[in-house]
Amino acid sequence: MSDLVAIPAGVSFQLTDEQVMLQKLARNFAANEIIPVAKEYDEHATFPEAIFYKAHAAGLVNMNIPAEYGGVGATPFEECLVGEEFGYGCTGISTSISTNNLGALPIILAGSEPQKKHWLGERLMEQKQFVSYCVTEAAAGSNVAGMQMRATRKGDHYVLNGAKIFITNASHAHFFTVFAKTDPEAGHKGITAFIVDRSTAGIKVGKKFDKLGQRASDTAEIVFEDVEVSAENRLGAEGQGFYIAMKVFDYSRPGVAAAAVGLQRRCLEECVKYAKEREAFGVPIFQHQAIGHKIADMAIHYEASRLLVWQAAWAVQRGQVNPKLPAYAKAFAADMATQAAVEAVQVFGGYGYMKEYPVEKLLRDVKIFQIYEGTSEIQRNIIVRELFR
């Protein structure tokens, strides 16, 4: 139902030929590889490893890795084009496939040339490995500066102690980008980022969480007990970790919002199809204003969400650092996707509550968008902060 349009520089909404091809590639991949297995993967909480490798072969994994390290060097906007298509197919599978983009961002943004060649080029591209992004802690989710994990310098290495929770792809990751306090008294200025190989002694990955939705996505806790990490694996200087993490979110939030936009489009298209076929009181139910207006609002919110995502991605790829824009996109797309999923179940009525119909899964999958990558409340805090500077 959506047109192949975008928002590049100026006021044109025309995609380039290459972007049209990329969007079609992602749309076909979702149709052929994701949607047919999404229900089964959700039911059994199956990690989509086989789909990941197919997406890798198609150039749809590690999209943000620059060409000099073997990647396609996609722009944030192009990542969003793919993110919407994968989110339409299944946001659980989409999250598993796209997490490498997030885990690689600290290295892309702050890594040295040797670090980029090894971890991006050799490990992610050549060896097709997984990386997880480790910030969240049990007592420090939205409050990143409140993390308790410690990294103590001892000669030419650091010793890491602490735990990270709700880490995507943790059970499968071959290495992690990890944030820890090197100076506990310095608040957010005491956080430092590291690259940590999974094989390092002292790392324990806990049992995978049994989740409400996005069940194909692996989520687990990671415990670090006296884990020795070479100083060569530090990203940037000591104390720069918080700033790296915040910059990562500027780049990653539009992509997360794009997946929510994809879920909105799935809700919309499923409702249009159903409301044409289902009759009540002698007419298709879309002809009843109570139903038709729900679907009209769903379409309005989908289009508005997508425009906010495009704007945020367009700005960040132009180097325009404006935290309001990713916050606008993430908050609105997450909230409108949640509303769309609730209304989709209502449009389907009793059938919407049954697992054999697709909207039941969409409702379970959608809620996390208002929580991960910064809650909707945190996005509003960011917006208020920026408006009142």
CATH superfamily of the largest domain: Butyryl-CoA Dehydrogenase, subunit A, domain 3
Helix content: 40-55%
Specify the structural class.
alpha+beta
- Please state roughly what percent of the residues sit in beta strands, choosing from under 5%, 5-15%, 15-25%, 25-35%, 35-45% or over 45%: 5-15%
**End-to-end Cα distance:** 40 Å
CATH class of the largest domain: Mainly Alpha
> C-alpha Rg, in Å?
21 Å
The second-level CATH architecture of the largest domain is: Up-down Bundle
Number of domains: 3
- According to CATH, the fold-level topology of the largest domain is Butyryl-CoA Dehydrogenase, subunit A, domain 3
How would you describe the overall organization of this protein?
With about 400 residues, this protein is an alpha+beta fold. The protein has ten helices and ten strands. The chain has a four-stranded mixed beta sheet with strand order 1-4-5-8. A four-stranded antiparallel beta sheet has the order 2-3-7-6, with helices on one face. Helix 8 (about 325-350) packs antiparallel against helix 9 (about 360-365). It is globular and about 80 Å long. It starts with 16 loop residues before the first helix and ends with a helix.
